[in-house]
Design a protein that fits this description.
- With 248 residues, the chain is of the alpha/beta class.
- It has one domain: Cytosolic phospholipase A2 catalytic domain (3-Layer(aba) Sandwich).
- It is 36% helix and 19% strand.
- The chain has nine helices and nine strands.
- The strands form two sheets. Strands 3, 4, 5, 6, 7, 8 and 9 form a seven-stranded mixed beta sheet that branches. Strands 1-2 form a two-stranded parallel sheet.
- Helix 4 runs antiparallel to helix 6 and helix 7 packs antiparallel against helix 8.
- The two termini are 35 Å apart.
C-alpha cells in the first residue's frame, strides 16, 4: 500500500520541515490506513529530509505506545546475532516475546539474524517466520564454479524478493537495521534504508561461500565478520531503551 497523502499536503509538510533547518533530526510518521504492505515510504522520507520513518496503524494503542517510546529514545530493541542454522533459535525468542506481550520497536540483525529480523520487522507472526524459513532456506544454495564463491546467491535473492518484492526498509512496519561488512574499507555497514532484498543478501553473504554484494564503491559481505551481535547499533539508536539480544 502506498502511503496516502495529497500533493498539497506533502508540499505543506515539506515547507514546515524546511523551517526546522538541517541540524534537526526529523522523524516521518506514516499512519497506515489498512493492513496492506506499505510501499513508497522512501520517497516520502527523502522528500521530507527525514532521518527515519515510523509506521503506525490508525487508532492503534500498541503503535501509539511504540511511537512514544521511540520519540523519547526508550525503544525496545531485539538484536539477533549470526550463527547459520543455529539462527533459527531466534524464532523461539521472538515467539516467547509475543506470548509475554514484550514489545519490539526496533529489530537489529547480523547474518541469519538480519534475514529473520526483516520478517520480524514486517510484523510476521512466529509461525509465519517458521513457515517461510522451512519453505525456502532448505534449498537456497545455488552452487557454481568457485572462482569467487561456492554459490551464486541468486536463489537467496529470489526467495527474499518473493516476500518483500521491491519494498524498502522504510516500508517495514517496525524499525529495522541489518549490518554487513565492507571489504573495501574493512568497516561495518549499517542498512537502515534502501532495498530490503539487498540488505538480506549483504548481511548473509558469507565470504567465500556467497559472492560479495556491490553497493556503490563498497563490496558487502556477512555482517558477522565484524559485528556478529550488533548490540551497539541498537544502543546508539535507542540509548535509554531496553535491549534484548539473542546470541546463538
Amino acid at each position: 500500500m502506498t502511503p496516502s497523502i495529497s500533493k498539497r499536503t506533502f508540499n505543506q509538510l515539506e515547507a514546515m520541515a524546511s523551517l526546522a533547518g538541517p541540524a534537526v533530526s526529523r522523524t516521518l510518521v506514516i499512519v497506515d490506513q489498512d493492513d496492506g504492505a506499505p510501499t513508497g515510504s522512501a520517497a516520502l522520507r527523502n522528500g521530507m529530509g527525514a532521518s527515519r520513518v515510523i509506521h503506525i496503524r490508525k487508532a492503534d494503542s500498541v503503535d501509539l505506545s511504540r511511537l512514544a517510546r521511540v520519540a523519547v529514545g526508550r525503544a525496545s530493541s531485539l538484536v539477533l546475532g549470526g550463527g547459520g542454522g543455529r539462527g533459527f533459535a531466534h524464532i523461539g525468542v521472538y515467539r516467547a516475546m509475543q506470548e509475554l506481550a514484550i514489545p519490539v520497536d526496533l529489530v537489529v540483525g547480523a547474518s541469519m539474524g538480519g534475514v529473520l529480523g526483516a520478517a520480524i520487522a514486517d510484523r510476521w507472526t512466529a509461525d509465519e517466520v517458521v513457515a517461510w524459513a522451512e519453505d525456502r532456506f532448505g534449498d537456497s544454495l545455488d552452487y557454481t564454479i568457485p572462482l569467487v564463491s561456492l554459490v551464486k546467491g541468486e536463489k537467496i535473492a529470489r526467495f527474499a524478493r518473493e516476500r518483500f518484492g521491491e519494498r524498502d526498509i522504510e516500508d517495514l512496519r517496525l524499525s529495522y537495521m541489518a549490518v554487513s561488512t565492507d571489504l573495501t574499507s574493512s568497516r561495518m555497514h549499517v542498512h537502515d534504508k534502501g532495498s530490503v532484498v539487498l540488505a538480506i543478501r549483504a548481511t548473509s553473504a558469507i565470504p567465500g561461500v556467497m559472492p560479495p554484494v556491490p553497493l556503490g564503491d563498497a563490496l558487502l559481505v556477512d555482517g558477522g565478520v565484524l559485528n556478529n551481535i550488533p548490540i551497539d547499533v541498537a544502543r546508539a539508536e535507542a540509548p535509554m531503551g531496553t535491549v534484548i539480544a539473542s546470541d546463538v
